[in-house]
């Protein structure tokens, strides 16, 4: 069953009925101001930090799920009939409805009883505000007297405090109304540096800023008293729950349209601006008024939206492909690339499944997000790398997360995830391969953002590797610490003195549990750092890292191989996890992917055998499950992984993040059919026809899909902000299509499905444009046998970097087997 369709020409997903299985959302904003918006206008907005600078309130775990957002109400003043053009929150029947989610904008249109309304929501480039452009049309044969009401509920900035500290917050909410602008100034009295505003292009016929005055006692957003009676009360909030609502009367003749623009924004006092005298509550609004007036003009909005569209034209022009598979083209050219950019901006911090309170920017997460983003805006990737590295500790360890506003590590989620430091090496390596910019390695970067502790970024990378070498366990494998990539595999949960089970804080050095996954990751990172050392002209360090990689490879082969697959780990007491010796959890997907990526087992056949085991034991029609058999009961020695019911999340769920590791591994060993088959199983576009099962948005990846042990096998959860976005983009573009940046050039090494006759692509790389054609006989398999660059034969599959501005024509031929 489908709830909409892709419009590839306009780069939009068109939702044709509002009652999607879950709220299907989009993101507004590309720089500092962001918002979530659903197909029924639910969601919230924030400036930079979803916790500390939340503009509008949103209630998670609500019923209905999608309550709270950017609401408009229309009222027929002749009959008293009223409705929401976005369906929510009134949920009155609409004669027709359409939501178009585009690239950083959403357009919702509907009609009821001869009145049509269309609202465009977007955040203009370079601004800290969002625009709602509402167009109301009278399609009747008679005049219409209408009322249009806007409504947002202000959050008192710190979303955690807003949701918990009622004894204080019910007394602090404050607004100020000046003409058609409602200013939310809670905290201005205390901090005197930031405020929000909500403006209307037409002088309102009324307003409300107190929630209860607008809604009425014992009422919800589905039937506000002000809308029902057709008049606002002019309430001014003093404490309780401040909102912003404008009431605009519209008199429309037959066929007449009227455009009303609303602007919701964030402002700070200019640095160095003289504050008002102590005790004054007067807002410093003079620098905001010109901005508000500018964006309330229809011509400004039109130009701003055109600029946003052109911005996405430029970004998505970095890579364009044309393959025999529509779903591949759609994801690579539009939606997967778009999701990579959104995920890069927000890490895992703010979605329908992350409240923006509990998580900031992830150290591991943000480094992985770089992999799918760096080719589009490398200058922003550079900035992000330096931000991430500055949260690293002098030991080489890392805060697992940091707040985007303060760029400080979260003390309650410190180090101990022992895979974290190695991701910095992989992220920096990806940047260097894409840009060739070695200057970043010399940038002075502090530890823990402490002034005076600066060392070069290259030294940060060295300490990342040393962090692992300083923490090896009894088998010579890396200690897992609190956890590795699998946050829920907590193996240091037993006391070796009393024998009594207990949950520990599991710091970086505690416990003896070891990770085969980190071992594989270390081999990969050590090889990457060796390549960087060679680039820097440091042969001794290059040899050191290659030797470390070789030694760890031997350790994995000796202690990490279980006979038909790679083991997952060793627990606190040295018992294997992910082994045929176990009754449950015998095989895990993560080490099978990571070890093959690192080159472990490629030459002796272990890699191919491990991947066959994945196909035999872990692959399902909906994707590859995390492990098998699922854990049937709680096991304290394993930690959180066993708290989930079988088939969900880390307990044998299908993680769309780890699936591409297997796709890449299959491509590495030359199995194009299996790699592409795995790709399509979790490709959101390919799953669109299963929307009633999948339930999440069919245009972006979800974090996980319920596994074969779950009663809801195939159901997705936690959409949008997931490492699955970057890794699936890397898997399909760099390994299946084979367009892979390396330190010394662009590799063209596709591993295609046998049925394909080839594909074409345009790829921007280091300032040059590469027009690539890959040809092979349909039905054939194999690797590139002939490479032509501008008509000249080139040995191997590496295309050297061309001068900036050059257009390079590349022809790759797979003669097949």
UniProtKB/TrEMBL annotation:
Keywords (A to Z) from UniProt: Glycosyltransferase, Transferase
A Pfam family of this chain: Glyco_hydro_94
InterPro entries: 6-hairpin_glycosidase_sf, 6hp_glycosidase-like_sf, Gal_mutarotase_sf_dom, GH65_N, GH94_catalytic, GH94_Enzymes, Glyco_hydrolase_94_b-supersand
Ranges for domain Glycosyl hydrolase 94 catalytic: 311-738
GO biological process, alphabetically ordered: carbohydrate metabolic process
Top-rank taxon: Bacteria
Full protein name: Glycosyl transferase
């Amino acid at each position: 069953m489908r709830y909409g369709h892709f419009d590839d020409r306009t780069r939009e997903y068109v939702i044709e009925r509002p009652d999607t299985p879950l709220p299907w959302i989009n993101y507004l904003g590309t720089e500092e101001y962001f918002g979530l918006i659903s197909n029924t206008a639910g969601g919230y907005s924030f400036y930079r930090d979803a916790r500390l600078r939340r503009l509008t309130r949103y209630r998670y775990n609500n019923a209905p799920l999608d309550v709270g957002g950017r609401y408009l109400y229309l009222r027929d003043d002749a009959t008293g009939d009223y409705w929401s053009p976005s369906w929510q929150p009134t949920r009155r029947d609409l004669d027709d409805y359409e939501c178009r989610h585009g690239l950083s904008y959403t357009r919702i249109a509907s009609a009821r009883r001869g009145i049509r309304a269309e609202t465009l929501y977007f955040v203009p480039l370079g601004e800290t505000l969002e625009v709602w452009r509402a167009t109301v049309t009278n399609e009747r044969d008679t005049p219409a007297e209408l009322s249009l009401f806007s409504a947002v509920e202000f959050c008192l900035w710190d979303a955690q405090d807003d949701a918990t500290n009622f004894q204080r917050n019910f007394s602090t909410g404050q607004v100020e109304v000046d003409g058609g602008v409602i200013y939310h100034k809670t905290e201005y009295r205390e901090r005197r540096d930031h405020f929000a505003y909500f403006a209307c292009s037409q002088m309102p016929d009324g307003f409300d800023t107190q929630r209860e005055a607008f809604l009425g006692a014992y009422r919800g957003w589905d039937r506000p008293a002000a809308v029902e009676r057709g008049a606002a009360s002019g309430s001014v909030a003093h404490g309780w729950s401040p909102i912003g609502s404008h009431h605009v009367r519209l008199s429309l003749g037959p066929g007449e349209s009227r455009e009303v623009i609303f602007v919701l924004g964030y402002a700070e006092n200019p640095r160095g601006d003289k504050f008002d005298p102590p005790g004054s509550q007067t807002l410093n609004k003079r620098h905001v008024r010109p901005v508000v007036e500018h964006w309330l003009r229809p011509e400004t909005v039109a130009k701003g939206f055109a600029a946003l569209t052109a911005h996405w034209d430029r970004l998505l022009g970095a890579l364009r492909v044309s393959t025999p598979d529509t779903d591949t083209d759609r994801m690579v050219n539009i939606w997967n690339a778009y999701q990579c950019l959104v995920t890069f901006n927000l890490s895992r911090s703010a979605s329908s499944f992350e409240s923006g309170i509990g998580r900031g920017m992830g150290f591991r997460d943000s480094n992985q997000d770089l992999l799918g983003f760096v080719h589009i805006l490398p200058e922003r990737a550079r900035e992000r790398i330096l931000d991430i590295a500055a949260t690293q500790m002098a030991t080489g360890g890392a805060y697992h997360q940091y707040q985007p506003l303060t760029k400080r590590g979260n003390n309650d989620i410190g180090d101990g995830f022992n895979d974290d430091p190695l991701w910095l090496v992989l992220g920096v390596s990806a940047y260097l391969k894409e840009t060739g910019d070695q200057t970043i390695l010399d940038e002075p970067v502090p530890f823990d953002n402490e002034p005076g502790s600066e060392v070069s970024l290259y030294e940060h990378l060295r300490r990342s590797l040393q962090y692992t070498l300083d923490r090896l366990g009894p088998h010579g494998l890396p200690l897992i610490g609190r956890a590795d990539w699998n946050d829920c595999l907590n193996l240091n949960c037993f006391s070796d003195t009393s024998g009594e089970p207990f949950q520990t804080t599991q710091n970086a050095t505690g416990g003896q549990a070891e990770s085969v996954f980190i071992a594989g990751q270390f081999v990969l990172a050590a090889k990457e750092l060796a390549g960087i050392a060679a680039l820097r002209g440091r042969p001794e360090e290059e040899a050191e890292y290659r030797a470390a990689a070789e030694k760890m490879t031997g350790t994995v082969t000796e202690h990490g191989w279980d006979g038909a697959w790679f083991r997952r780990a060793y627990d606190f007491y040295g018992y294997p996890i992910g082994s045929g010796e176990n009754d449950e959890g015998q095989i895990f997907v993560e080490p099978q992917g990571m070890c093959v990526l690192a080159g472990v087992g490629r030459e002796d056949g272990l890699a191919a055998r491990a991947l066959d085991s994945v196909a035999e034991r872990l692959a399902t029609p909906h994707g590859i499950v995390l492990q098998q058999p699922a854990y049937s009961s709680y096991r304290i020695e394993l930690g959180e992984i066993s708290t989930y019911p079988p088939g969900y999340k880390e307990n044998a769920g299908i993680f769309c993040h780890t699936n591409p590791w297997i796709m890449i591994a299959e491509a590495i060993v030359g199995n194009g059919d299996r790699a592409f088959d795995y790709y399509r199983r979790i490709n959101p576009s390919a799953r669109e026809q299963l929307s009633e099962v999948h339930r999440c948005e069919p245009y972006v990846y979800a974090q996980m899909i319920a596994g074969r042990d779950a009663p809801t096998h195939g159901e997705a959860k936690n959409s949008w902000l997931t490492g699955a976005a970057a890794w699936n983009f890397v898997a399909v573009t760099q390994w299946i299509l084979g367009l892979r940046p390396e330190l010394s050039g662009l590799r063209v090494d596709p591993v295609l499905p046998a049925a394909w006759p080839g594909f074409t692509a345009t790829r921007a790389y280091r300032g040059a444009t590469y027009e690539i054609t890959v040809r092979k006989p349909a039905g054939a398999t194999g690797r590139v046998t002939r490479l032509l660059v501008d008509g000249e034969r080139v040995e191997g599959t590496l295309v050297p970097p061309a001068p900036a501005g050059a257009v390079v024509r590349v022809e790759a031929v797979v003669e097949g087997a």
